[in-house]
Amino acid sequence: MSCINVFFGLTKDRKMVETLRQIAGLPKTPAPLSESVILIVDAQKEYTVGRLPLDGIDSSVLALAKFIETAREKGVPIIHIVHHALASSEVFATGSKTAEIIDELAPLVNEEVVVKSFPSSFTGTTLREHLDNLGRTNLLVCGYMTHMCVSSTVRAATESGYNCTIVEEFTATRDLPGVGGGVIEAKVLKAAILAAMSDRFALVVKSASDLVW
User: Fold this and answer.
1) Mean pLDDT for the chain?
2) Residue pair 175/185 in contact by the 8 Å Cβ criterion
3) Statement: the pTM of the whole predicted model exceeds 0.85
4) Catalytic residue positions?
5) Which of 111, 131, 107, 134 is nearest to 121 (CA)?
6) Residue 80 neighbours by CB under 8 Å, 6+ apart
7) Cα torsion for 135, 139, 143, 149, to the nearest 10°?
8) Pairing outcome for strands 78-83 and 36-41
9) How does pLDDT run across 79-97, given as a tens digit for each residue?
10) Which of 131, 132, 150, 128 has the alpha carbon at shortest distance from 141?
11) Domains of the chain, with CATH numbers?
12) Which of 33, 59, 127, 145 is the most exposed place for a label (fewest CB within 10 A)?
């Protein structure tokens, strides 16, 4: 059974499989954005011009930039998460060019920026405090990398009582070495991670057109 088939809810012989969300009777449609907070995780130049280029990052950034422009017009709160490592680090070094937020996704002056140093956006940060102040528990989690900080953030959020949605086109990842050799292609890895997320931790949709304002 391929990872991509699992993501779309299909086995090899086209029979439907159930997620834990379906078994539990959890919502099948995203929470309205008018009742949500948008989290943009690690939309940083490390993934565009640094050592960690991501598969499909350019098209993802363009789609996300267009979406948040509309979200701002409609008054949906946006919180930006950035990863900062030690100044001597090979990636995400504090103060470096590649630790900067991608220009097209740069925060406005009235938007919160939360700095983290672990994969989860909740660990050792002020994120929960900001969410409490907004009084909202529905989160649209966007950003990079799918398998790392997006996954970690969504898992932590769900375990803390938040309701998460992920849009496939608003995230991206990279090839990884396979255990025992070979390479796991980014598109396969992304499909598998989103399938794992959609099993219990988040409602996963394909594009912005699947969201409800």
Assistant:
1) 94
2) yes
3) yes
4) 42, 116, 149
5) 131
6) 40, 43, 101, 105, 107, 111, 112, 113, 114
7) 90
8) parallel
9) 999 999 999 999 999 999 9
10) 150
11) 26-210 (3.40.50.850)
12) 59
